[in-house]
Amino acid sequence: MRIDLHTHSTASDGTDTPAELVRNAAAAGLDIVALTDHDTVRGHTEAIAALPEGLTLVTGAELSCRTDGVSLHILAYLFDPDEPQLARERELVRDDRVPRARTMVGKLQALGVPIEWEQVARIAGDGSVGRPHIATALVELGVVETVSDAFTPQWLANGGRAYAEKHELDPFEAIRLVKAAGGVTVFAHPLAVKRGAVVPESSIARLAAAGLDGIEVDHMDHDEPTRAKLRGLARELGLLTTGSSDYHGSRKTVGLGECTTDPEIYGEITRRATGAFPVPGAGGLRPA
Questions:
Q1: Bridge-partner residues for 34, per DSSP?
Q2: What phi-psi label fits residue 62: left (phi over 0), alpha (psi between -120 and 50 degrees) or beta?
Q3: How far apart are CA 94 and CA 73, in angstroms?
Q4: Fewer CB within 10 Å of terminal CB in the chain, N or C?
């Protein structure tokens, strides 16, 4: 059984529509895929409607958080999307995305980059505008070679020259809200140092004590020593360990299913969830 618990669609900053994403997940040989767009669940309905037979969808979201001056992301799975407090916090984060992106465009212009807001808005389309869309604009302009190259201190990394802060949840409050909505929480790519500053292990321990369910270990931004370190930390703290692609379509080079989650871990996630249930596909046939 192949399980990928971290993907993005055009509902946030991926390049596949939700329908395309689930079809591509089936074509990639996945049995289970989670749609975890940034701070939004609006891609779920389309994904469910297009879900091929043989593929199960886990509904979720990737929540933008900050603690001790460091940004981090909490993956929330199988929560009640209509729970009002959590829905309100997601809305606050989304509402701040456009002003933040405009600020970053302005900073890039001040650095001499010939970027325009209209270009970024075109790239974002109907998605929740964010740094990957700005990074794509930098690729189009020839400023950087790849989207990943834009996430450096020179450009868009946390604290970088063109970085701008946004409204972010306190991760302890995020865990509380997701739990209250019947969901399960996993700390996404916790030691992805190439993205910028990361929280210390002591903060991960505090999050575990506050109810964090797991940490994402197998991820493209974690090398093998980092993965081994995280597995040891998870054993020490009693946390689940997941693996995921963090797929963004053509915006990144990673493919669906490049990292996967153990079926036993997936079973424990679904056992703990009470806000929603995985959705089995019945919309079509799995590609050969």
A1: 58
A2: beta
A3: 14
A4: C
10 close to 17: Cβ distance less than 8 angstroms: yes
- The DSSP-derived string for 122-136 is HHHTTS---HHHHHH
pLDDT higher than 80, residue 283: no
Condensed to tens digits (0 to 9), the pLDDT of residues 9-30 reads 999 999 999 999 999 999 999 9
Rounded Cα distance between 62 and 188, Å, is 8
| Cα radius of gyration rounded to whole Å, the chain | 18
Report the 10 Å Cβ neighbour count for 254. Answer: 18
Residue type, 168: E
DSSP annotation of 193: G
CA 256 to chain centre: 14
The dihedral built from the CA positions of residue 170, 132, 147 and 250, taken in this order, carries a sign that is positive
